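Incident log entry.

Two folding requests arrived from the same account within the same minute. Monitoring flagged them as a possible duplicate submission, but the sequences differ. Recording both here for audit purposes.

Request one:
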Amino acid sequence: MKSNYDKKPFIQASGGDCWTGWEAITRIIGEQGGRVVVLETYPGVNDDEVVPQLKGFLPGRFFFTKDAFLPEQQISELVYPDVTDDDIFGYITRLSMVDFFDPVRLGKMREAIGSEAGPVYIYGPGATLVAERWDLLVYFDMPRWEGQLRFRRNEVANLGLTDKTAKASLQYKQAFFVDWRVADKHKKPLLSRWDFVVDTTVAGHPKIVAGTALNEAYGLIVRRPFRLVPFFDPGPWGGQWMKEVCDLDRSQSNYAWCFDCVPEENSLLIRFGDILFETPAINLVFAQSRALLGDAVQARFGDEFPIRFDFLDTMGGGNLSLQVHPTTEYIREHFGMDYTQDESYYILDAEDDAVVYLGLNDGVVPGEMVSALSAAQEGGKGGDGVGGPGERGDGQGDRAGGLGFDAEKFVGKWPIKKHDHVLIPAGTVHCSGRNSMVLEISATPYIFTFKLWDWGRMGLDGKPRPINIGHGQRVIDWSLGPERTKKELINVVSAVDEGPGWREERTGLHEREFIETRRHWFTGKVMHHTGGSVNVLNLVEGREAVVESPSGAFEPFIVHYAETFVVPEAVGEYTIRPVEEGARCATMKAFVRKNP
């Protein structure tokens, strides 16, 4: 059956004009601007594209915030305590944008701006800090995912730096722990003040919209269901399922991940008239956190979206890395995060031989397991990472130059099938095996994975991926044997309620996790209520369903198989039914549990 998965979902704005092209953008800036125009930019905006266009169309003197920044060596020293020497992990920074400025340089730039008759254009991160007062604020925004792609293409550098050729993974790490945190802290108070916002996500196709129109659109979005723009990425263990179901490029070797509800990195597409404007989804969280999340959830998490949905595709691929996530106390102490990466695997699809590695076997001695992991890691590098030599998918994973880690000696191996739900509280050793399609439902801190063993394979760059046995051994729940694993973590399903044409089940999560999940099987209409928390759902069975408001508060919203969608808390009551009358469908819904 032909795929109906929508890769470019959008929300229709109720009003507001949008313009495309540099000539139109600079005309608007020129007409609306006064003596001082600030042109704020988010990390990832490509100055090499934007600046020549602005200078080519706008008469006046340009000042660049980078010229008032600290020297690069001092910036590197400034961020080092948060960036650290670790290949993957750092510490959530407490720096602010003003910390990147050299006070002397900043003072001189302000004096020079004050002496100009105008028009004056101040461009770059922190432009509003340089100007202090301005006549027009234009914000050049950038979704994090596109920023990551630009790191990979050597198009942009980290905040305050100029080296675009640095290793992309290290650029990403610095952005995650420092740049994006600093830029978001600076952006939040500007959302209510920006006059225009420019979308430069697609090179050569910029778009501009009035800030009031964009903010009105954010207010509209949190009164209805919506989807984020999914993105897909290959991996050393990636599979083939998403190519067919999500209609992806068949010429790619594999797709490992789909991130379809990670607002920190995903985009929103908003259509103004007939123009699609792309905006970082995190802006919605900043601008409408209470209506989106719910009052109690916002009080608990602030302007962070606490639930993440994504796909892990190993169909025809290989095992994920054997891994463990930090406990709450560990992630807080070592990385500065307030809550940890509890998660679960909902099995969307599986072959007959699909398994999950979960928990420990009886009698495991911690020191023995750690020694075996360390010996395997020192045993050499090898394998192609896609199910060939070095990744047999059977838990052994021979390594060139040495014997691999015997996972089945230490780690539980459990068969799984379609619609199973596996719970993975922090501290649980786990990974999905090959030939499964996982809907991962988890808390949002999404990079804090301690890899213990990678099955003797290389990453897509031909180099070993970092292993984190040192961190991992300190957080493993060594008491989690087979009896507890089976009882507490695998298909802990209980009936909740039922009615004509529908049945509701509780499928988790674990008592240590703050997310609750409910599965609804239905052939008719099901009534839902957000119940004080943002709801995140995925249509895990059935070709398509329609989400409706009993009071007609929003237009009917169609979702297709495997699509994740968000229902803001402000929506309240909503219903879901099959588009085709009598068709069998199922949704998985996640929300934040109420405090006891």
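Request two (distinct sequence, not a duplicate):
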Amino acid sequence: MRRKRKDFKRIFMALTFIVGIIHFSGCKKEDNGNGTEKNLVPLQIGGVSLNIDEGKMVSSWTKSGDWDWSGKSIGVFRRSSSGYSGTADNIKYSAGNSAGSSWNPADSRKQIYLMKSPAKLRAYYPYDNSVGSDGIVTLTSQLYSEDKDMCCQKSDISSAGGLPVSFTLGHVYSRFVFNFTRGTFYDGICAISRIKIENPGIISSDTYNLLTDKSGTPSAGNKGEVTINDVGITGISAGNSSIVYVLMVPSETALSGSLKFTFTVDGEDITGTVEDASTVGLLTGTQYTFDITIKISAVEVTNTANCYMIAPGNSLILPVNVKGNGDANAVAGTGLDVHHTAASVGILWETSPDLISLNGFTTANQKTEITANDATQTGNAVIAAYSGANQTGDILWSWHIWVTDYDPDSANVSNGNIYTIANTNGYYTWMDRNLGATTVTPATTTTMGLLYQWGRKDPFPGANNYYISENNVYTSLPIYSENGTVLTEESGTSGTGIKQGQALETTSDKTLNLKNSIKNPMMFYFGVNGSEIGDDWYTATNDRQYQNDALWGGADNTNPTDKTIFDPCPPGWRVPAWNGTTPWSAFTTSIFIWTASNYGRTYNNEIFYPAAGCRHCGSGALYFIGSCGYYWSASIPSTSQYYSYRLYFTSGIVHLPFSSHRAYGFSVRCVQE
């Protein structure tokens, strides 16, 4: 029995010794550079968070508290520090799989120990076992994903053993955000498969030092272009958006020149450009958002005119060096050339701020892309070509831009109708609305459209209501400058908007009358009331030879000529002309019915004609809004030297073969050529 007891003691002592050896091993000198002082303790990580770099006036994409760290791993460096014999490089620490879990070394045999003296520490995410002691990683511009979004501690933090360490990481990459929106009228699937980014300063791949927060020097082969394939947007439904995030290799040098984008949409490449790329610095931790609307490709005009119809949200490319429809025969005797060279283009007025925008004009291409900016906004605008740069010098020509979802030329006539109506000697195909009208709803001002002096291409705004004010004066539809300023309407030449003045005076060259009207498309010219010329805006003299009966092609009211360069209608349409009888010969009072609540007449229960009133030939003031309708034809009466034919109606009468002074501002209803 005693012997057995002695053996038991031996065994107990042996076990005690083994435990002692294990305990002692934690205090001996490390052979992996963890330090020479005793009482080393493991690194304790109190938390990891993300934050935007201070002082950068940019948007951040992930900040502290936005990221769930559960199940993620970081790499930690204990750098060369006073009192430590070496470093601990790229040690992996992982968070638990539940929110709020503590951070622990992925391998208990590989962890960082700290002494009482502080050590310099750095951390990065996501952990990569290929990162060496130099802390150099390779960055690649690519589609964003969280596990590729390199983040690091941007400066050393000091911590001693026994104290929890919290790491605050910042993004290493820059990031582009592409917010794609499908335009209302885009008719494709809107699948986006590729993004190409071009600029000499763009970097596709480069090295980055996590320990010094410095980029390398990319090779020439890695600069200038980044292509992102497999974007993965299989389609965007009408009116909706989809976002693509792209991680971009950072550069501490701001970009210069322009930044070009090419997007492959439904198998076709479309391009866009940021003209001033210096606003994109590609700094680490920065984010740049680009809003892109996918819309029908801009159609380039081949059939020119003085008015162009553009659907909201769409674009049109038109030449700005051709007058009207470019018909040289139509300018005989006027001293005009159908071509000119524009030095600049600009917006004269528009019925709502930012209704349209102009882009892409150069003196070499002599074209501008007109975009109706808002996919829901309709209205009217006038643009002009100038002889001088930056909208200076003379106006060479101007065009009316009709922003409307009405398309009378489409196979099914979008958002409206056209009507073919026989008259005594043939038939006309009519639009269902006035030139410039944005609706066909009776009793609304948007149905009245614009007003025109006979023979001129230039529109003038009509009334803003059907009612007479306290001063017995109608309010004009407000118009705005290119920068959104309201333009005032005044008599004389001092107003910022539509001006009103006496008929043009001439000296030796009577052809200056027409040329001056081209230079002043916002001037409503009126004659000397009661004078022998019958209030023709064209000339202030009483010399008949200086008038022009053919401005709209109706000098012969039996055989009118083709559309002229002064016709205000869109391509394929013209002002109606007499062909031996009035174009409105079918509009008898029995089927052209007045409705008081509608402020107008309706033909055959289908085609509404608003009583849009007029601008007076002797003053330019608005009159008879809601009580009288006046509609120009292109033709002149054979028995009168100073008037032009028009349709006139009130609540009680319809006058078909009727004529008026040419200086009046009347409505126009276009017919097919």
